[in-house]
Amino acid sequence: MKEIVVASGKGGVGKTTVAASLAVFLNKAGAKVVAADADVDAPDLLLALGGGKTISSTEIEASEKAVIDESTCTGCSNCVRACPFGAIVMQDNLPTVVRLMCEGCGVCKVVCPVDAVEVKKAVTGTLKIEDTKYGFPSVTGYLRLGEHNSGHLVASVKKSGRKIAEDTAAKALVVDAAPGIGCPVIASISGASYVIAVTEPTPAAKRDLERLVKVIKHFNVPAGVVINKANLSEDFRGTLENWVKNELGYQILGEIPIDYEVVKALVNMAPVTEFNPNAEASKILTAIAKRVKGEALP
Amino acid sequence: MSVPTVAVTGGKGGTGKTTVAVNLAVGLSMGGSKVMLVDADVDGPCCAMLLGVELSNGEEVKIFKPVIDATKCTGCGKCVTVCREHALAGLKGKIPLFLEELCSGCKACQLVCEADAIKNGQKVLGTIYITDSNGVKLVVGELKPIEPRSPIVARATMLRAAEELKKGEYDVVIVDTAPGIHNVIAQALWEADLALAVTEPTPLGAHDLGFLLDLTEELGLPTEVILNKADIPSGLRDEVVKTSNDRGVEIVAEVPMDNELLHSYVSGEPLVRKSPKSPAGAALLALVPHIREMFVKVGVT
User: Fold this and answer.
1) In this structure, what CATH number is given to the domain that contains residue B224?
2) Confidence (pLDDT) at A148
3) Which of B49, B187, B218 minimises the CB distance to A204?
4) Cβ-proximal residues to A137 (8 Å cutoff; 6+ apart), any chain
5) Domains by residue range for chain A, with CATH
6) Does any CB of chain A come closer than 8 Å to the CB of residue B122?
7) Does the interface ipTM go beyond 0.85?
8) Number of residue pairs across A and B with CB atoms under 8 Å?
9) Which of A288, A34, A26, A5 minimizes the C-alpha distance to A173?
10) Residue in chain A lying closest to B200 (CA)
């Protein structure tokens, strides 16, 4: 089983559009697929796949939070001073843990002289397994509002996806990653077989891609680049193409022009390759999927 | 922060948060305000790029890391037990192995070590840059690639901005947040007086906006929506309207598709300065008086 991760650095460049069309293409081509949405802050892959029928929904307790027992606490405020994250504040002479700030490191427990602190498991989010109308299942992580996105929920999404893939003899896990390069993205990329790095011809997207590539290369994962909205800036497009080929040493898997059929497809909640296979963007997305199949699933 | 603060956020990535933040900051500055712009999207900070300014001479964001003195370590294993991040590993009787990438810098290991064998080490997680551009003081936090701990760098950036604010030279702060609804964004929102949620007219934009508006409601933060790419062909404006209305939130600006905006984005010249009369430029500039009114309304002027 191969894990193909669609990532980007910058948000809104078209990860979900690429992931949805790739998953449907591979599944149709006989390489059974499991889709996984690892953008747990803004999980949209299922929307692009037309929704799903829920098979299971599980709360994931991957976070840890300090809990202070008020009856034991003497209010010495050792914990307030020791907390490196500013997550404990004094309120009415008693320390109070701020959920949004607590990283669960437990240093408060260490410094408490009366053993009033416990570090307890807390709900990180929900893991849903759904059946899509395209004949393959999808796993989605939904982060609890304001929760720490440490990558633990992403790891749960991937673990669940791998398990389903194993049970169903699927050949590919298609992972739609979050924007950025932090912990959730690292959790998506580590252990992957191939990364599709999506970008667009703007200086901001190029710079974010450059940062993402440092992560991809660190984990030694083969990758290729998709330039989306390729005619957004013809001037910058040439700069980007040369830089990808010469500086990054990656092949360009395809360049998708601006095509409002993509927007129409999103509004109709279908991959554009299914919504209008003859659209310019669909033809190129299909060609990209073929190349990725050749690269990642030989 | 006692200075009026607007967080520009939105849920989904790539909807135009940075475009709104930068143009609002420059627009306020053109109108005579002393503006601080904080780029708290430490995974991919792009404000400097949109302002056309090169960043240099940054301050490193450092955290503690344990350095084990093998001559003093008794191999008692207490540090291994106490480390909840599993950054210290090893058997009793042996000197623990340190897995640097897992360390959160919390110092619990040092606190429990009875042999005084854990010395202070340092680990660089990112960089903070402070510079001036287009009449705006820009504070940028940047995560070092391969480091996973964006929250620590984002928090350090907010604290550094708060330090700079103490100079008393600013009368408004704009914070450009990362996409999402996680704790780093929640922390930035917590310190704000008003949130602007930027979205786009697609089911994805509306879906992610819903999560974000639920978060600002939980935080009790006054929030308004900005619809970017408002007239994108075949777009789905109604769904964004519904998502906002259902939560009693108003759409206060609609920024149309505009080639001038794209040129400004690529060339690094803020649109409100480069083409204030272009359709998108005018829509963004109209936010300036609105924000001033909102400050009065939420009582922070």
Assistant:
1) 3.40.50.300
2) 87
3) B49
4) A34, A35, A55, A129, A130, A131, A164, A168
5) 2-61+125-296 (3.40.50.300), 63-122 (3.30.70.20)
6) no
7) yes
8) 193
9) A34
10) A12
